[in-house]
Write a structure and sequence with these properties.
The complex is a heterodimer of chains A (73) and B (618). Chain A has 73 residues and is α+β, with helices and mostly antiparallel strands. Helix content of chain A is 37%, strand content 32%. The model of chain A has no long low-confidence stretch (mean pLDDT 85). In chain B, helix 15 packs parallel to helix 20. Classes of the chains: A alpha+beta (73), B alpha+beta (618).
Chain lengths: 73, 618
């Protein structure tokens, strides 16, 4: 499944690259890209574990930039 | 300003006031460090706490830690004023940076603000306002003047003018009447129209464009990859250098500890690659955003980069340089009027459904004339027909010469020539061809001026027709008599013409040329508005069929690349210069802060130039 999420308070481009690499390395993720200027995360991952993976990605973002959130609707 | 930015501003103001007061009153003794510390805290505390927090989360080398180390180090060395100044200027720079990025981001978002907010849909005789996602294919929607067309559809009722600027960059409004196809993202200008939707929102033009631009970040340019790789080793390398600088010379007895630790602190301040990491991707994103505003969709930074290096540009003739429809280009009557020749020829071709016959009928405006009493098709030659008791021959030159009718040879003209004779007398000929787009020659000239060394046309026409067209267009090379399957092989041969580092760009109308689009370094589909296959296969999509857009795309790509390069040179140059000066003790912390955040702000502002519309040089 491929889905695009909005991100909030993503303030440093460097951090976006770090998050992108870390999310890509997660088990079950086939593709991840963060567009810093559009403030968007595009995530492609296994259907069954998708929600779990989003939660892990959320954690990664918080770890790299404490204020940053992935908007899950 | 966001609340966060406002908080930072207040901290900076407080800190600056305390700093200036301390400098003015110059307290003595223990009061001095205490006063500077007080001035330091408003700006320094958040950075210190972030640095500590990051270490706890395992993120060691980030700019917060580096700035914290530098300022705390300065305090430890007794350089209180510098310690405060470093943090103060760092925060001012960060604020500027965040404002500049937010501004660029908003400008880019505004460029791409083509998303429709709602659709007026007719359901059970009622008009409902719903979100465009909730409208199904085949439903009827109403678009009022001033509203954006929410979904692709066909006009059922009404006639209006549509502003397509956001999609094509073309400022001239397009008219839409009953039966016309209308694309989402256009703005309805004059009157209410009713549409039957032909696509759901996700498949509509506007969604596809937005998706393309938003995902373009995934395909990064080589320059962007270089920056990411560079940033990965730059910071650790500079930090290691700082360590060596702090320890080695004093151990060797080349100076005091304080002197060398001071210089090492300057290294730490300069070690953040932020200026590069932000400004280079911003240049590319700005370039892609700016291009999309002009009706040029670029699928990634890598294609923008390849487009900037365009050296060989290959055009597919039909539909790209020409309109792609047969038209009467010229009439050469002999002894009768132009209209008489056209009418006679059209009547003889009454039963023919060939595109050439249709184009003659269209030009003669002779749809309702009586049919010939007898007509016979002579394969490969033409038609013999009885029109008003005259025997009329219409077709190729051999048709007339075989019948013993003398006629001039006009086969060298660019296009298909049909000759007409009646009762054994030659009456003239008509030149039919695919009309060249008006601004195609200008676009090709501009490409050459932009430094493209070879412009090539691929054509299925005869050599004569292809060469004549190429002369009019001012192309370097022509490949004629090509079958659709030959194009890939031809494109591969043309790749050898590329100068080192140059790329081959193929421009087609997106119909039947997907293999070539994929094979070329950059595949450009022209006039692809609404054509799914072309949007899928191409790397760059030109929304309307104006060949000048290709030149514009190359110019935009060049500008993007040159701005990205300027930023790399600026940021790296200043940083390396400051590092060099520092080793010899010729710099100070103020200069270092400028080399860090000052350069970031300059580079971001430079990247912001990408947002201004690019015009073609006349």
């Amino acid at each position: 499944m491929k889905k695009t999420f909005d991100m909030t308070d993503l303030e440093c481009a460097h951090c976006a690259a770090k998050m992108e690499n870390a999310i890509r390395a997660l088990d079950g993720v086939t593709g991840a890209s963060i567009n810093f200027f559009a403030q968007k995360l595009t995530l492609e991952a296994e259907d069954a574990r998708f929600d779990d993976i989003v939660a892990q990605a959320q954690k990664i973002c918080r770890k790299v930039e404490p204020d940053c959130r992935i908007v899950v609707r | 300003m966001s609340p966060k930015q406002k908080r930072t501003l207040r901290r900076i103001a407080l800190s600056a006031a305390l700093f200036v007061a301390t400098l003015l009153f110059a307290p003595k003794g223990l009061l001095r460090p205490a006063a500077f510390l007080l001035a330091y805290l408003p700006v320094g505390l958040p950075v210190l706490s972030k640095a500590v927090g990051n270490i706890r989360r395992g993120q060691v080398f980030d700019e917060n830690l580096l700035m914290a180390l530098a300022s705390v180090g300065a305090f430890a060395c007794g350089e209180y004023a510098e310690g405060v100044a470093v943090m103060l200027f760092y925060q001012v720079g960060e604020l500027f940076e965040s404002l500049a990025v937010a501004h660029s981001r908003r400008s880019i978002a505004a460029l791409m603000d083509i998303r429709p907010d709602f659709a007026n849909v007719e359901r059970d005789g009622q008009l409902l306002q719903v979100s465009p996602e909730q409208v199904a294919v085949g439903e009827v929607i109403l678009v009022k003047p001033g509203e954006r067309v929410p979904l692709d559809g066909v006009v059922l009722e009404g006639a209006s003018a549509l502003d397509t600027t956001a999609l094509t960059g073309e400022s001239l409004p397009r008219s839409a009447q009953e039966g016309d196809e209308v694309l989402s993202g256009c703005i309805n200008l004059t009157a209410v129209i009713r549409l039957r939707t032909t696509k759901c929102f996700e498949a509509s033009t506007v969604s596809r464009i937005l998706e393309l631009v938003e995902h373009s970040g995934a395909k990064k340019a080589k320059t962007e990859h270089f920056i990411t790789r560079f940033a990965r080793w730059y910071t650790p390398a500079v930090v290691v250098c700082a360590l060596v600088l702090a320890l080695l010379p004093p151990i060797l007895g080349l100076g005091t500890w304080q002197q060398w630790v001071g210089r090492a602190l300057i290294f730490l301040v300069v070690s953040c690659p932020c200026a590069l990491v932000i400004s280079v991707p911003l240049s590319f994103f700005g370039g892609i955003g700016g291009a999309s505003r002009q009706g040029i969709l670029v699928k990634g930074g890598n294609y923008l980069e390849a487009l900037a290096k365009a050296d060989v540009v290959v055009f597919d003739k039909t539909g790209t340089l020409t309109h792609g429809v047969f038209q009467v280009l010229e009439v050469y009557p002999e002894g009768i009027s132009r209209q008489e020749l056209l009418t006679l020829t059209a009547r003889a071709e009454h039963f023919s459904d060939h595109p050439i016959a249709r184009s003659v009928r269209a030009e003669a405006n002779a749809h309702d004339l009586p049919a010939p009493t007898q007509a016979e098709e002579l394969p490969g030659l033409g038609i013999r027909a009885q029109v008003d008791a005259r025997t009329v021959l219409v077709g190729s030159r051999p048709l007339l010469t075989q019948a013993g009718i003398p006629c001039p040879d006009r086969d060298a003209l660019a296009g298909t020539v049909i000759y007409t004779a009646a009762d054994g007398v030659y009456l003239g000929c008509i030149l039919i061809g695919d009309r060249i787009k008006d601004n195609a020659p200008r676009a090709i000239a501009a490409l050459k001026r932009a430094g493209v060394s070879q412009t090539v046309m691929l054509s299925g026409d005869s050599e004569q027709a292809a060469y004549a067209a190429a002369r009019t267009l001012g192309l370097n090379q022509v490949r004629a008599r090509l079958l659709p399957g030959d194009k890939v092989a031809e494109a591969e041969r043309l790749m050898e013409l590329r100068r080192p580092g140059g790329t081959l760009v193929f421009v087609g109308d997106g119909i039947n040329d997907a293999p070539v689009l994929a094979r070329a370094d950059v595949g450009v589909a022209m006039g692809a508005l609404g054509s799914d296959a072309a949007i899928e296969a191409a790397d760059v999509v030109l929304m309307d069929d104006d060949p000048a857009k290709l030149t514009l795309a190359v110019v935009i790509a060049r500008k993007t690349l040159s701005i990205a390069r300027q930023n790399i040179v600026l940021a790296l140059g200043v940083k390396l210069l400051v590092l060099g000066l520092t080793v010899f003790g010729l710099s100070n912390l103020w200069l270092a802060v400028f080399a860090d955040v000052g350069v970031s702000v300059l580079a971001i502002c430079n990247a912001g130039r990408m947002l201004a519309p690019v015009r073609l040089p006349e």
